[in-house]
Design a protein that fits this description.
- With 741 residues, the protein is of the alpha+beta class.
- The chain has 5 domains: 3-14 and 178-271, Immunoglobulin-like (Sandwich), CATH 2.60.40.3880; 20-175, Galactose-binding domain-like (Jelly Rolls, Sandwich); 286-364, Sandwich (Immunoglobulin-like); 374-658, TIM Barrel; 661-740, Golgi alpha-mannosidase II (Immunoglobulin-like), CATH 2.60.40.
- The protein is built from 14 helices and 45 strands.
- The chain has an 8-stranded parallel beta sheet with strand order 34-33-32-31-30-29-28-37. A 6-stranded antiparallel beta sheet has the order 2-1-3-9-6-7, with no helix packed on it.
- Helix 10 (561-570) packs parallel to helix 11 and helix 11 (608-620) packs across helix 13.
- The longest helix has 16 residues, at 506-521.
- The chain starts with a helix and ends with a strand.
- The protein binds alpha-D-galactopyranose.
- Alpha-D-galactopyranose (GLA) binds next to loops.
Length: 741
């Protein structure tokens, strides 16, 4: 090819690929406070300071904790040529920075978008800080000034630090016609069975005309199982749903292709519908919880046998040791034993379908939490909007929906229960959302559950509530009076104390935790002690020294693959030596089901395979299994994930050895956990972007396996062939095995 031809080809590619958009705007004028006049284009902002809008105001040294309000004014020229070149001339798009926490966006004085809610709005303040913000404006709107200076004003409210605009710059662009189509996938049912559907919605003021094809295929073989085609004509705000039946017990892959009639351009979206691997529990009784429990001499025993199966059911023990009572209706063991002892007895569960027994050991001694705690915590769903009512509704659902039959027992109230001020005698109280903590504790105990609470060794918690500093003894006594069984003690405000120290050492980290533990141990009940300080000072090396039962090893988790991968795989890889019965590494709470850290809940953004990976890995890690979703809204997919007795048995294995990665081979990671019965739990993970076939045998040498005696698929609860070990593992998915060799 001649040079000139090459050049014009390059130019053509360049023009075609050219994004019709303005240069990115990264700076804006900024002022603290709130005045709606500041939205007006004519307002003179020359005296305002200039800030970078891709970092919060907090990151730029502005402390605005007191009143929360700040305004930005960005100046953007919008060339008319933008719309002249556009494929669709009806609309322009404003991509603007994210806003921590709520924002109104004005274009030359006209409100064009809003995210989150301000304190005075209906429903009260609500943060939407992580939401990407894109607003569309009709091209014929009088708010736009073509080829001239436009003022984009942002009215921002930050509920707590940090605050302000952040992440991406401002870009104004014209869309492709199909950009206005959104695709929402959803599982459902009709009379014939399970369905997966996609709803195409037109969000632009242009008619979408084209064709949609939806197909379901087997991702392992590529075979297309079902197809549906539909011609589409959608006006603005109209939508259309296509759906196909699918087999919910197998992985399948859905692909939707929409082709625009005018341009011939296609948009493709893919989706893996939720699929259920755990087989249904039998109607006959089955014990699902560990056969050992630790309690200190004299402390009340609060333990519930987790037994699935049809109700009514009777749970009894003929040889129950003195001092203990077993409630035959809900399987709760209570009472106390005042001396160290190892007490063995047989528990029997009976219903109309049969009988099951468990040989149980109660270890009365110093060590509690012989297996990792299982239960629920309010943070990942409700964040600071938690209330007593919300806690009770999830607790009730844990009982009603059978999760308590699988060992989920701790019901932990996270931050935001605390009163604004201490009582005159220095004790802590609750805020209006928690009318009666003692009643909550009693109610939980009566339902066979345990009660957890949250505080900080500092003056303030992470949510800005009262911490325990200088009141540790009083707080421990209050917890005892309320019947608390678990304390999550979160560093946060303690950083101010830490920063006062001139020289830092491990002792600086240890001090506040040691102090509280002394007072907890003085109480006449067992309180699980959960350290939360994000792994600082290698907490795993000294957590046992402060008599902690678990310690968070990382910062906060969120419901993305990136977060879960970083926390679960990378950050736990070297922590195996530090876990043992009573002392657990805590990679943070579960992110399955409906989460949202606020009143705005959403389905976990993890794909079904990422969720299988999450639960498999957390059970391998002997991690605290604290459900983070609103259990009152839990779906059957999430119940199926959380209530696989064979999977959970790995988490609760009494040997208490955490898994470690024995093989890391490109995108394949094999984590192995030795179990008490001499077998091993093995997670073969595919952490890469493509589906893989992995031959387990290929890694036998690396794993020290000379001959595979048995292999069981833990999710499906099926024995597998020991000769055919070639497994299909979808992207971000897992093959979870229990093997003997
Ligand atoms: C920190 C913790 C979270 C949660 C919040 C509460 O971020 O790591 O788990 O407890 O504080 O404010």
């Amino acid at each position: 090819m001649k040079k000139a031809a090459l050049f014009s080809l390059a130019l053509a590619v360049c023009v075609l690929g050219m994004q019709a958009q303005t240069p990115a705007v990264k700076k804006a004028k900024f002022h603290l406070g709130d005045n709606t006049e500041w939205a007006q284009p004519g307002f003179n902002d020359a005296s305002w300071q200039t800030l970078d809008i891709t970092q919060t105001w907090s990151d730029q040294g502005i402390n605005n904790q007191e009143n929360g309000w700040g305004w930005y004014r960005a100046h953007v020229t919008i060339p008319k040529s933008l719309i002249d070149q556009a494929e669709t001339k009806e609309v322009i798009i404003f991509d603007v920075p994210k806003a921590d926490d709520a924002v109104e966006v004005f274009l030359n004085g006209t409100l064009i978008g809003k995210s989150g809610r301000f304190p005075a709005d209906k429903g009260g303040y609500s943060s939407a800080w992580s939401r990407p913000l894109t607003f569309s404006v009709k091209a014929n709107s009088s708010a736009i000034k073509w080829d001239a200076d436009n003022v984009l004003a942002f009215r921002v409210y930050s509920g707590n630090e940090p605050g302000g605009l952040f992440d991406n710059p401002i870009v104004v662009r014209v869309p492709a016609r199909t950009d206005g189509l959104t695709f929402a996938f959803k599982e459902g049912k009709d009379k014939k069975g399970d369905l997966v559907g996609v709803t195409l919605a037109n969000t632009y003021p242009v008619v979408q005309k084209g064709q949609a094809v939806m197909e379901i295929s087997n991702p392992e073989t590529g075979e297309v199982l079902k197809t549906i085609k539909k011609s589409v004509t959608l006006k603005e705000k109209k939508e259309l749903t296509l759906s196909l039946p699918y087999d919910r017990t197998e992985i399948s892959s859905v692909k939707v292709t929409y082709t625009d009639a005018a341009t011939g351009k296609s948009v493709v979206r893919s989706y893996i519908p939720k699929y259920l691997l755990t087989p249904p529990a039998p109607a006959a009784p089955r014990f699902n919880t560990a056969a050992v429990y630790g309690v200190r001499p004299g402390s009340p025993v609060i333990f519930k046998f987790g037994v699935s199966g049809e109700r009514p059911m009777k749970i009894t023990a003929a040889d129950l040791p003195k001092g203990l009572t077993l409630n035959p209706d809900n399987g709760s063991l209570s009472g106390s034993v005042d001396h160290p002892a190892t007490l063995r007895f047989t528990v029997k569960a009976e219903n109309a379908h049969g009988t099951a027994t468990q040989e149980f050991t109660l270890r009365v001694g110093n060590q509690i939490a012989l297996t990792p705690p299982m239960g629920w915590n309010s943070w990942n769903c409700w964040g600071l909007s938690v209330s007593q009512e919300k806690v009770m509704s999830s607790a009730q659902a844990i009982v009603d929906k059978g999760l308590a039959d699988y060992g989920y027992q701790y019901i932990n109230v996270d931050d935001a229960w605390e009163s604004a001020e201490r009582n005159p005698d220095g004790t802590i109280g609750t805020n209006d959302k928690f009318p009666n903590m003692k009643a909550l504790g009693d109610w939980l105990h009566n339902n066979g559950l345990k009660f957890g609470i949250y505080s900080s060794p500092g003056d303030r918690t992470c949510g800005g509530y009262l911490g325990s500093i200088d009141h540790e003894k009083q707080d421990a006594e209050t917890y005892n009076a309320w019947g608390v069984d678990y304390l999550k003690y979160d560093w946060c405000g303690y950083s101010r104390e830490y920063n006062k120290e001139r020289y830092h050492s491990t002792a600086s980290y240890v001090r506040p935790y040691l102090l509280m533990q002394k007072f907890l141990r003085d109480q006449p009940r067992d309180i699980f002690y959960s350290l939360c300080q994000y792994g600082m000072g290698n907490v795993w090396e000294w957590g046992e020294f402060v008599d902690a039962n678990s310690w968070r090893t990382t910062g906060d988790i969120t419901d993305t693959w990136r977060s879960m991968y970083d926390i679960g795989f990378i950050r736990q890889a070297k922590l195996q030596p530090y876990a043992k019965p009573g002392r657990w590494n805590d990679p943070d709470m579960l992110i399955v089901g409906k989460v949202g850290w606020s009143n705005n809940l959403r389905d976990s953004r993890l794909t079904p395979d990422e969720q299988y990976t999450h639960i498999s890995l957390w059970t391998l890690l002997a991690a605290n299994m604290l459900i983070g979703c609103d259990v009152s809204q839990i779906d059957d997919f999430t119940i199926n994930l959380l209530c696989n007795n064979e999977v959970n048995a790995v988490n609760q294995d009494v040997l208490g050895i955490q898994a470690k990665p024995e093989v890391i081979d490109g995108d394949v990671q094999i984590w192995v956990r030795p179990l008490a019965d001499g077998s091993h739990a093995v997670g073969i993970f595919n952490v890469g972007p493509d589906n893989l076939k992995v031959d387990f045998r290929h890694y036998f040498k690396a794993l020290g396996i000379t001959s595979l005696k048995s292999a069981r698929d833990l999710w499906r609860q099926q024995d597998l062939s020991t000769s055919d070990t070639n497994y299909f593992i979808p992207t971000h998915g897992v093959k979870y095995l229990k093997v003997k060799y």
